[in-house]
Amino acid sequence: MSNAKGGAVVTGAARGIGRELALGLLQDGFGVVIADVDPEVGRATVEELAKEFGENILFAKADVTKRSEVAEAVAACRKAFGSIDVMINNAGFNKPEPFLKASEDIWRAIMDVNALGVLIGTQEAAKAMIEDGTKGKIINTASIAGRSGFPDFAPYSASKAAVISLTQAGARALAGNGITVNAFGPGVVDTPLWEKLDADLLEMGASSAPGEAMAGLADSILLGRVAKPTDVLGTVRFLWSPQSDYMTGQVVLIDGGMVLQ
Amino acid sequence: MSARTGILTGAAGGIGRATTERLVKEGWSLVLVDRDDSIRDVASAVQTGAGQKVVGVAADITDSATYGAIDDAVAEIGAPLKLLALVAGVLQEVGAIETLEVDEWDRVFNVNLRANMLLMKHFIPALKKADGGAIVTVSSWYGKSGHGFFGAYCASKAGLISLTHTAADELAKDNIRVNTVAPGNVATSMHLDALNEEAAKRGVTFEEMKKTEWDKIPLGRAADPSEIADAINFLASPDSKYITGATIDVNGGCLFS
To answer: Which of B233, B242, B253 faces A172 most closely, judged by CB atoms?
Structure first.
């Protein structure tokens, strides 16, 4: 079977930004593999989206730190939709700790998923694209934290700076194959990741009421509000469309005006 | 989408023409601004849809006394002003700082930086009156890094990026987003002329100069003007509604920042 528009894999797409991007790809006619470490929510998401998009969506259980599972998700995409044209390395998580207490365990866990996961995802997608002769688009989820370190989430900031470096290295490595690699950097987005972060910061004593940490960050946003996942979709859609064919190695910040660069 | 007007400077140039085509396709009515009277012919040759108007105005953007004609054209179109696409720019006479004429520095800064400030100053009230919109400037990867023999050009484009940030900060509360597109090499006559000039300066052929420059680009080629127009259109569209103060680098990978 093949799909007119081709196939896409989105990691961490069971919920949040990843789910929104999967929906956008489906609306644009791509076949989509939702690759997520959480089979329960992942399958529920697929079931929900399949009501409208039928066989154009499927689930692959993938822990992005495990190469074989990522390779299987890519293989599932090629098998179902004929090719992998878009790879979105989106899976990531955060666990805040005060800077002086940031621990080795959290550092390793965050770097494994957020940074190594992007390296593995880029490699596995690119190998398939090169084999098929697909001029594909690899898109990585970075963050404003990759541009500006935040004291209560040092490992997360470092991991997202790593995502930016991997985007640049991948762009140079793959330009000759006609594959572009770009990243987008959300600011504060109203997603489960940020809800959990808000709760964690409250527990840590970095804020004194639910929603306070998130609202405090929102105060520094020029557009005066935190983002919704749909605010991110337009930019990522630009990055997977032919309109961005001359962009590679770049990071587009979607932060409502936080880091002006 | 309802009727809306944009002002596009540098409209007779390569990027300007491609941007006109792209924005008209998206339903914009446009005031095309350029120095030469021939801009009126450029405007009248544009194919428009129902209810769309494209008007050409010859104006010197470095002289705000000539902006009245642009105001008149916006009024003639009649739809609210929702976009300033500031594409106009000039290259400098290639040369080292030691030999750079101050007049040349001033000419480059007048067009690339001062005129954009004057245009923003003049048209921001109309954007506010329209309950918001977008300003898109066209800077350059040379504004994000310095390059020998382009002292005035690089500094003027760096200044434009900074002006873009300041405007984004000032205007967010008015729902006016301000962003910049930073192209790398674009296959326009401006780029090809510059390659010719630099080739002469270095005593090499045009083809050698082009190869030297294009080999530095990971994607191995200059951009088509339409690829810059796509990014300008993105920043003018609701797809970028949460983006302000940002730079979209459309440079084929020649600079990562």
So the answer is: B253
pLDDT of residue B8: 98
B172 and A224 within 8 Å at the Cβ level: the answer is yes
Q: How far is CA A215 from the centre of its chain?
A: 23
User: Considering only alpha carbons, which residue of chain A is nearest residue B162?
Assistant: A261
B67, B142, B153, B242: which is the annotated catalytic residue?
A: B153
pLDDT in tens, B191-243: 898 899 889 989 999 999 999 989 999 999 999 999 999 999 999 999 999 99
**Which chain B residues touch A250 with a CB distance below 8 Å?**
248-249, 251, 253, 256
pLDDT at A1 over 60: no
- Is there a catalytic annotation at residue B153? yes
CA distance, residue B82 to nearest chain A CA (Å): 17
Secondary structure (3-state) at A141? strand
Chain B residue closest to A165 (CA)? Answer: B256
3-state secondary structure A68-130: HHHHHHHHHHHHHHCCCCEEEECCCCCCCCCHHHCCHHHHHHHHHHHHHHHHHHHHHHHHHHH
Which residues, 6 or more positions from B46, have their beta carbon under 8 angstroms from its beta carbon? B20, B21, B24, B30, B32, B54
Backbone φ and ψ of B249, nearest 5°: -95, 105
pTM of the model: 0.92
Contact A114, A163 (CB under 8 A): yes
How many whole angstroms separate alpha carbon B246 and alpha carbon B120? 17
- What tens digit of pLDDT does each residue of B23-65 get? 999 999 999 999 999 999 999 999 999 999 999 999 999 999 9
Residue A142 amino acid letter:
A
